[in-house]
Amino acid sequence: MLELRLVQGSLLKKVLEAIKELVTDANFDCSATGFSLQAMDSSHVALVALLLRSEGFEHYRCDRNLSMGMNLNNVSKMLKCAGNDDIITLKADDGSDTITFMFESPNQDKIADFEMKLMDIDSEHLGIPEAEYHAIVKMPSTEFARICKDLSSIGDTVVISVTKEGVKFSTRGDIGTANIVCRQNTTVDKPEEATIIEMQEPVSLTFALRYMNSFTKATPLSSTVTISLSSELPVVVEYKIADMGYIRYYLAPKIEDDEDMKPE
Amino acid sequence: MAVGEALALLPQIEALVSDKLQVVSYKWLSRNFSLTSNYAKRLLQEFVDKHGSELEVIYTLSGWLKNSPQNYHIKLASGLKLAEVKQEYIDNCSVQVYSVQACIPKDPALLWNAEFVQAEELFNQPLTAENCLRDNRYCGVSNSFVKRTVDGKSAGATPHPMNLMGATTHSKTNTVSKISLVQPLEQGQVGQSAKLGVKPSTLETSSDKSNNPAPENFDRTDKSDFVKEATSAAQANKKKGQSEKTSSASSGSLANLWGRASTKLKPSTPAIDTDKAVPKAASTAEAQICAREAADASGSDDDDGHQINYKRESNGGSNRKRKFIMDLSDDDGDEENVVNLASPDPPTKPVLDCTHHVDHLVSGKNNLGLEKIKKDTSETWQDNGSERDSSSTRGVFLQKISENPVSEGLVVKVQKDAVGSASTSPQRRKVIKTRVDERGREVTEVVWEESEVDTKNSEKKNTAGDHGNRPPMVNKAPASSNSALSNAANKAGSKKTAKGGGKDNKQGNILSFFKKV
Question: Is the pLDDT reported for residue B125 higher than 50?
Fold first, then answer.
């Protein structure tokens, strides 16, 4: 028996929006600790990991571990039927092949039930080792989204290089090149507007902007984004979900060759 | 160029000015219609005399200023301010029409825009191409820095574009600081002013005959003194003008003006020869046509854009004649207006330097006609295994009937080619493609599209051939109908490789970092 009650229903809607562009089908794993998802995109270049801890739910009951395969587009369709202020409750019976979404309006005068069929999805769970990252950049998520969007209009890949000066996003395309440098900036009124760079050693990696732009679909979930870089490791783009958990994207870097653009 | 023929330009100028709102300056006119610059000025003067009331005129005044007599000055002045500016000059300055336009542009740069675009195009032509900028053949300025190549053949000797630019920009600046150009320039002006006298008289005689007489309330006061003086000697001058015209035409090398002769000169002929060579091998009734069409939506410089190379191949095999009238498809509405209102006689427009010029001719309707021809040919078209074959079938080579340049029709001689079974013939169809070129103009092209992969090959080959063989067209839309295709293909290809995403070799795989549990 599974029963999760989330007061802030819009959060689930945002989560789905943040994932469904990258992944079409995925298993949602429920355990006593929380509600999680891990999935790779179809080309096995990016991986998304979602965690919503049980403490974040108003009511969380999960009798035994459960993996529910869902088509994310269908989930999104269901959730679109929920109002932004609605309370969302997920219910599933043991051994059932359906999941029920219940939407309650804030003043309880409207209650809607949506039952969705589950699907069997073969998925490989990847072990993600804990790693020390050479550089960790924390910046406003909207800023990051803007950079990715702007750069993708010029080139296909972005070189993210972190030096003690700051973090530089650069691209090159048919029409020209672009470089965007963000310096460390902690002197801001609101902490979420700060750009904080923690660097052990300089790092420079190349990524496909297409994926980065998919990641920025999570921008509504958090006002800040954390980008962790290490040479020889996938970048981690993390959006914290307040009081509940996170959504993390892992993206394998592009292997640079000589002629590839490297920051000078 | 005969006077009558030149007069036929007037309606075209009117069309350009009133319909396309283009600034028509004498320089533009000179290059576009292959006139000498002096003649172009006279033509404009004539035009102003005729239509002066309907449009705005910018005059060039040149002479010695009262307040700085040591410098020779050239100033531009609008018709309204002409008298005022004239006061600044000592005694008699030379007054010529610089440009005509529908209204005085707010930004003076607009005055210069059309001719700049034109000059840019001319300069962008390959070095081997002869054009009137490179050989400077229409330049009215003569001095030791400006080399003029009267004979088209010697154009390869790299004239001095820089000097030429200097000379052309010269008259643009309002106040010209003194340089060595000054003296010759003055001479040039004097000469011109004498010739200018021709205009009024020729105008008056011709305007009666003119098909669409314009209200003749031109303002005589605008005319400078010398014009009036010269009227008396109109007859003599007229003759002079004519002879000058013919000489200018011949100096431009007839071969350059008319597509036919120049087998040796013309860059386009090699292509034809190859065409011919192929058909010779097999000689059944297969039509081989190569057509190039340009459609250029933009108004300003489209006369260049409208260039079409056409060539008629008289081959012994079967001389099927077809009437072929071309009209620019995307300008349909425009052109019709032009025809109705201003009635320019498109074929009378002289060619620009050595390329053969079909003006405003390709229309949708006639495209159909062309397509029809094309279909005929494609039915029997055989893939000889020769790519050249396919490339040469790509278009229609037309040649204007040079004996009768005024005729509206063009005769296409359909070239017969080796034939095979229709079964082997690739499917092709005519496709209208619209793209935006590097200058931001919308270019609509009619291209042949083939399903086969070999299209690309032949396309490429064709383009290469074009670049090599017919330099003057390289920048032109028609030529690029092929090159554009291949460009597009290339681009697509490169995009694919660049965007390969997951399949990209350089893209790492997440599975190589994280192990399955």
Answer: yes
